[in-house]
Amino acid sequence: MSSIQKRPDGKWRARYRDADGKEHARHFKFKNNPRDPENSAQHWLDQVTTAVHTGQYVTPDRGRLTLGDYFDEMAARKDWESSTHRQMRLAVDDSGMRGRRLQSIHRADVETYVRAMVDRKLAPRTVKTRLMHLGAIFNGAVLDKRIASNPATGVKGPALTRNRSTAADAPDSIGPTFPSSDDVSALLATAEGTPFAIAIAIAAFAGLRLGEICGLTAADVDQAGGVLRVRRQVQRDASVSTAIEIRPPKYGSVRDVLVPEQLVERIREHICVHGTYGEVGWLLPGRVLPAGLADVAFPIAPGGVGPMWPRAFETEWTRTRRAAGVDTKFHNLRHYAAGGMIAAGCDVVTVQRQLGHKNPSLTLDVYAAQFRGPDSRAKDALSRLMADTLAD
Predict the structure, then answer these.
(1) Rounded to an integer, what distance in angstroms lies between the CA atom of residue 257 and that of residue 334?
(2) Residue 149 domain-assigned?
(3) Which domain of life does the protein's organism represent (predicted)?
(4) What does the pLDDT look like over 349-377, one tens digit per residue?
């Protein structure tokens, strides 16, 4: 129900009741003035009516919640991984709009934030990721009838320039960094005789992520078939600095990874020399879990031996690489494995499945330069095509 009435002061009072029976009213200078629709009572009521019929109607007071408060409310009912929660919270806090009411945020505000990130020289992928996270939060607000439309819709981040260099020390390299064979050999030699040596070997010759390596058990190794079964990852819990989470791998990339026989032999020797840890049989030394730790995908009783924690892993890695004189990140060993597969002629889908990427396009984004490198097979194929054509 809606109505328009003229007040004693000459202004026009437009009012309507929403589905809950609550009355909403505004005052305007004109009842109906096509030349000044924003000051027209009839124009406002027409907009409300259209929004109701199109399903876009939002009660005005629903959008008064701040972006920060809405995010906290949204996060409390989402089953996000800790890393996802951390990244989305970072996007909210970094945007400078945490204290702004949802209804006051417009597309221009989101574009201004993107421009600010670019000016701060954040990596294009970082900018796009934060924009994507903000868009997901605003989309949730739309679905929850907090706002009528998503202010991030149509806002574009900077173009992702595919990496140009395959060299680790190239000054203009914007792609992954690839350790040299000498670097990997030095790291393995330095870690020789320690339980950590197998972690370096699995990253360099199977391409597993740090958290996935922490989550490996002896039961995940099919020594006869030459397969590593990637079933879980270990992550720090963002909400509790002294706790961890054991979850399925990133992007749901549970997978079986074929590995070289030489790596299987190293794992076999590792188990013979160092054994496994805890009742679960972790490959890497872990620690007794504190009481109250809730593991999502791999419950362990309090007092049981858990996996190696990522923080302890990083400490061991830093000690090893410094002793070896190698300045690189552990994640770069994963790039080393990918580069080796691509150089040997593996196609993008094969590499994607081995690494557990979400889709082949992500693999191409990361390793574009390696896939488009010189390949004599294309030359030979075109040579045969040319010879057959001219012969005909």
Answers:
(1) 13
(2) no
(3) Bacteria
(4) 999 999 999 889 888 888 888 887 656 67
Domain contains 48:
yes
* CA gap 75, 111 in Å, rounded: 24
Would you say residue 187 has pLDDT above 80?
A: yes
Q: What gap in Å lies between CA 111 and CA 27, rounded to an integer? A: 32
| 135 and 27 share one domain | no
Q: Does residue 317 sit within a domain? A: yes
DSSP code, position 248: S
Task: State the pLDDT at residue 168.
Answer: 43
Task: Classify residue 174: in a domain, yes or no.
Answer: no
DSSP code for 162: P
Q: Label residue 296 exposed, middle or buried (CB < 10 Å: 0-12, 13-18, 19+).
A: middle
What is the reported pLDDT for 64?
80
Calculate the alpha carbon distances from 247 to 74, 75, 81, 308, 359 in Å.
21, 18, 8, 14, 20
Give the domain extent around 40: 2-57
CA 192 to each of CA 107, 165, 201: distance values in angstroms, whole numbers, following the listed order: 56, 32, 11
Q: What is the mean predicted confidence (pLDDT) over 216-222?
A: 95
pTM above 0.70, yes or no: no
> Helices (H) and strands (E) in the chain — how many of each?
14, 8
